[in-house]
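User: Some background: our group keeps a shared notebook of sequences we're curious about, and every so often someone picks one and asks for a predicted structure to add to the entry. Today it's my turn. The entry only has the sequence so far, pasted here. Could you supply the structure so I can complete it?
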Amino acid sequence: MRFVEEGDRIVDRAKTRGPYAKTAARRAEIVRAARDCFAEHGYANSSLRTIAERAGITHAGLLHHFRDKDELLAEVLAQRDSEEWRQGLEEVEGIDQLGSYLAGLIQRHQRAPELMRLWLELAAAGSRPDHPAHTYFVERYERSRAQFVEGLPDEAARARLREGVSPESAAVLLQAVLNGLQLQWVLQQDLDVVGPVTDFVRLLFAQDDDAGDTA
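Assistant: Of course. Here's the predicted structure to add to the notebook entry:
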């Protein structure tokens, strides 16, 4: 399985001409069809033949682009990561937007619970050093932590963190809370996890009125 983020590459390839561009466009169609099938029917109940039919190609044509369903699942999840990565960069300009963005992110994931479940299962399997997904998830978490720390570029932003909490520690805690809340929701889907994630952000960062009280 290849665990790489294809989102940006698909956009770039679409600008090229000839067979290479057609291949990229066809792969994108297959990934979209697989994502819809997995979300609607679950991973186990989605066959490569069904996905191929939905993408408008033959089963053999699909196998020309993806070796098996595991590789296709990896591509679906990597593309979702890439889309959310770009969206986060566009929507979160500062600490005050972080809570609402994360709440919206979880709500979007809740609309596709099967994809959420598949992501959690793959992340757990990837914890084994010999698993094909191991490097992908290690690099993904490293990149996410680095992005969070880089989002606190000056002393004023870092001063909003609760006393004694470093940006690096806050990044690790945020990942743990997001993953843990989504796991709890997959197990119990009437559980409110949107409120807790916004509460956690308020716990992590002092609000403007808090700063005023301590001045």
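Suggested note for the entry: The CA atoms of residues 84 and 90 lie 10 Å apart. The chain has twelve helices and no strands.
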